[in-house]
């Protein structure tokens, strides 16, 4: 259901993890070439899992508890991905005197995804509480 706010948050998460990562480099190497996530198979697998969890979570809108759990797993997966990005950027190969590698904004896209997933979980929790309160009145 697109009219639910958590679906909008999850669609935005899909855009961040599934679309923007193709266009925004993670960092620029000291050779001047941009480094995208597709150049490392492990990053590709983790981002693919994150995107698939988001899609499955959008599809399972009738099962709010499963959606909540999938979003939590997705948050953990994005935290792992962010940690790997930071670790890799801190351990970039040695810098030459005249060439410096630059960290790109793409490295922080998992943070945006985590924030959107937390907002979606808050909205799911709110819906679940509303349904429970209605059931209590019957």
3D structure, described in words:
The protein is mainly alpha-helical. It has four helices and three strands. The chain is 68% helix and 4% strand. A hairpin with a 5-residue loop joins β1 and β2. α1 runs antiparallel to α2, α1 packs antiparallel against α4 and α3 runs antiparallel to α4. The two termini are 25 Å apart.
How is the secondary structure organized here?
Blueprint: H1 5-23, E1 27-28, E2 34-35, H2 41-59, H3 64-90, E3 102-103, H4 109-137
Antiparallel strand pairs: 1-2, 1-3
What's this, in brief?
The protein is mostly helical and 138 residues long.
How do the SSEs run, as a string of H and E? HEEHHEH
- What is the 3D shape? elongated
Overall mean pLDDT stands at 85
Radius of gyration: 18 Å
Beginning-to-end CA distance, first to last residue: 25 Å
Taking the sheet with the most strands, its summary is: 3 strands, antiparallel
Strand content: under 5%
* Number of helices, counting only DSSP H or I runs of 4 residues or more: 4
Q: Low-confidence stretches at least 5 residues in length (pLDDT < 50)?
A: 96-100
| Helix and strand composition category | mainly alpha
Q: Could you tell me the number of beta strands? A: 3
Helix content: 55-70%
What oligomerization state is this entry in? single chain
Q: For the largest beta sheet, what order do the strands appear in spatially?
A: 2-1-3
Note the main attributes of this structure:
138 residues; mainly alpha; three-stranded antiparallel β-sheet
């Amino acid at each position: 259901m697109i009219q639910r706010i958590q679906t909008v948050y999850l669609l935005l998460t899909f855009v961040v993890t599934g679309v923007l990562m193709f266009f925004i480099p993670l960092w620029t190497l000291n050779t001047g070439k941009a480094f995208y996530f597709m150049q490392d198979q492990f990053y590709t697998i983790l981002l693919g899992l994150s995107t698939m969890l988001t899609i499955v979570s959008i599809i399972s809108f009738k099962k709010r508890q499963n959606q909540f759990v999938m979003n939590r797993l997705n948050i953990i997966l994005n935290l792992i991905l962010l940690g790997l990005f930071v670790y890799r950027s801190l351990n970039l190969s040695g810098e030459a005197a005249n060439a410096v590698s630059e960290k790109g904004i793409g490295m922080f896209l998992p943070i945006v995804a985590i924030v959107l997933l937390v907002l979606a979980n808050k909205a799911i929790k709110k819906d679940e509480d509303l349904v429970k309160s209605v059931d209590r009145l019957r």
